[in-house]
Amino acid sequence: MTALVMVAFAANSVLNRAAVGGAQIGALDFALVRAVAGAAVLVLLIRLRHARLPLMEPRRMLGGLMLTTYLIGFSVAYLAMDAGLGALILFGGVQVTMFAGALVTGERPPARRWIGAGLALSGLAWLVWPGGAVAAPLWSVAAMALAAVGWGVYSLIGRGSADPLGDTAAAFVWATVAGFVAVVIQTGGSTVNTASLPGLALAVTSGAVTSGLGYALWYGVLPRIGASVAGLVQLSVPVIAALGGVVFLAEAPSLRMLGAAALVLGGIAWGLWPQRTRGSSAS
């Protein structure tokens, strides 16, 4: 289930690159349509279960705020930031947030997991670091850092979820409201005014399937794994997204990509490998 969630997260990146990078839809418009589609599908599933969807519970409101922070911060940051640098800041920030949350809640990740995280993050830096000089406005760096914290805290909240579908649906409803306000402010009263039909289709797919259902599944997985494990496995997302770009966007693979992918996945495997206790023997 965790592997399936990581594939869904990576698919979001591929869909975003195809839509926004292909100039099919604006960044904030993509975020808004994504939130609306996710909210619509999840609320429909709630109604089919004949269940209620309380929105004013403090925990759900906080989850909505954190999801909104991630979605808007992510979109705003990429208005003036290289995609590789953005990915490094995002996933590095998520890693720090998740490990900090693990320590605050009493989890004590073993040394092996810290080492694995360091190796995987090094591989990620090798994979996404842009060539030549790197420069980004301070506001875009701050926006991506806020997005990382938002997603990290959103994931930490999910560790206590007893109703993954309801919690995710409520978060998307709140994100839809905030996203609509953000787009209206940016465009001066008009929304989704530069979107093509393919761009809208990609945004709807991202929202309804790989975001809405993917995030609900993530909330179902989180209570079963530790915060540090949740942070570590997410470093696989850029690698899966890079492979998805090769398969679906005709992007050219390189030796750098293969080497970095091996380092990232090797670091994750090292960090997750069960420690042998003293006195145990091979079976």
Automatic annotation (TrEMBL):
It is found in: Membrane. Keywords: Membrane, Transmembrane, Transmembrane helix. It comes from Roseicyclus mahoneyensis. Pfam families: EamA. The chain crosses the membrane at residues 28-48, 60-79, 85-104, 111-129, 135-157, 169-188, 200-222, 229-249, 255-273. Its main location: membrane. Residues 139-269 form the EamA domain. InterPro entries: AA-Vitamin_Transporters, EamA_dom, EmrE-like. The keyword Nucleotidyltransferase does not apply. This is Threonine/homoserine efflux transporter RhtA. It is a multi-pass membrane protein. GO terms for cellular component: membrane.
